[in-house]
Design goal:
CATH superfamily of the largest domain: Medium-chain alcohol dehydrogenases, catalytic domain
Shape: globular
Number of strands: 17
Number of domains: 2
CATH architecture of the largest domain: Alpha-Beta Complex
CATH topology of the largest domain: Quinone Oxidoreductase, Chain A, domain 1
CATH class of the largest domain: Alpha Beta
Largest sheet: 7 strands, mixed
Radius of gyration: 20 Å
Structural class: alpha/beta
Distance between the termini: 20 Å
Length: about 350
């Protein structure tokens, strides 16, 4: 299938128009025309080869909403014209214990990323959603339920499920005390989701500048982490803290905020942190954990949950020609709260 998109051709290089071939449709494949694609901080990391594994030319994009254009003969869940979605994964072994538990993101053989990963059958490198179309095996395609604004829903495929999964894993519900560190693309979704689950939500930020935004998103409280008196008043205040900060930082100040058996879950930074000290962990059986996206079943659950509660990400719509400027702004944290590309602009 002939495709057009935007690709980076070298480390940190600008994204520019790029033509390439998608694989031929397999019997269990769904082909879709991409309508919208979210812009994730991981896209920028890969363009810059921050994790040392980018294969160029590189087409980013793993928050994808599209319309089915063709299906293979074995496809049963979807038909041409359906509005569907694709997140961070397009394949896994489907056989290991984790895949059988619907945790494909922890596949023992490694899941196949929507971009920059070898296809399990051909070895060809996958290319993402900054393009006009994509082909994905049926098991990794999601239904977009009525009730979601399809122009805003794309970030749910990464930012949404990345925060939804730990909230569900740690059984957040009415009365749960949840702290959210960072209020960007991930953090704003954590606030909305935890609020809808009935939790008492507190945003933890370095300054009071974002308090009004936090209130508007549904937070009940706002804690300034640089204010020692406030931090002291919140000792033992949380059952769960979701840390969404995507860069190296110090988590030690947050540990005393956890109650006994409380958990701080890292979902933002993939890489080093400041040196960890353990007294507050040992004295309160507190935990530092991590979580990455969610399985396909849980991602569908997240989409359905958001439709039921009328939760849409806060987005800024851009044309694909403006993607390099968007990356510059994203590095400055100058986005409210997620960029989404209108992919019709690719051919306009």
């Amino acid at each position: 299938m002939k495709s057009i998109g935007y690709a980076a051709h070298s480390v940190g290089g600008a994204l520019e128009p790029f033509s390439f071939e998608r694989r031929a449709l397999r019997d269990n494949d769904v082909a879709m025309d991409i309508l919208y694609c979210g812009v994730c901080h991981s896209d920028l990391h890969y363009v810059k080869n921050d994790w040392g594994r980018t294969v160029y030319p590189f087409v980013p994009g793993h928050e994808i909403v599209g319309r089915v254009s063709e299906i293979g003969p074995d496809v049963s869940k979807y038909k041409v014209g359906d509005i569907v979605a694709v997140g961070c994964m397009v394949d896994s072994c489907q056989e290991c214990d984790q895949c059988r538990k619907d945790h494909e993101q922890y596949c023992r053989e490694g899941w196949t990323g929507t971009y920059n990963a070898p296809d399990r059958q051909t070895g060809d490198i996958t290319r993402g959603g900054y393009s006009n179309n994509i082909i994905v095996r049926e098991e990794f395609v999601l239904s977009v339920p009525e009730g979601l604004d399809i122009s805003k829903a794309a970030p749910l495929l990464c930012a949404g499920i990345t925060t939804y999964s730990p909230l569900r894993e740690w059984n957040v519900g009415p009365g749960s005390r949840v702290g959210v560190v960072g209020m960007g693309g991930l953090g704003h979704m954590a606030i909305k989701l935890a609020h809808a689950m009935g939790a008492i939500v507190t945003v933890i930020s370095r300054s009071a500048d974002k308090k009004k935004d936090a209130d508007d998103l549904g937070a009940h409280n706002f804690l300034v982490s640089k204010d020692a008196e406030q931090m002291g008043a919140y000792a033992n205040a949380f059952d769960l803290i979701i840390d969404t900060v995507p860069v190296k930082h110090d988590i030690n100040p947050y540990l005393p905020l956890l109650d006994i058996d409380g958990t701080l879950c890292l979902v933002g930074q993939i890489g080093p942190l400041e040196e960890l000290t353990t007294p507050f962990m040992i004295r309160g059986r507190r935990r530092v954990a991590g979580s990455i996206i969610g399985g396909i079943k849980e991602t569908q659950e997240c989409l359905d949950f958001c439709a039921r509660f009328g939760i849409n990400p806060e987005v800024e719509m851009i044309d694909i020609k403006d993607i390099n400027t968007a990356y510059e702004r994203m590095e400055r944290s100058d986005v409210h709260y997620r960029f989404v590309i209108d992919m019709q602009s690719l051919t306009a």
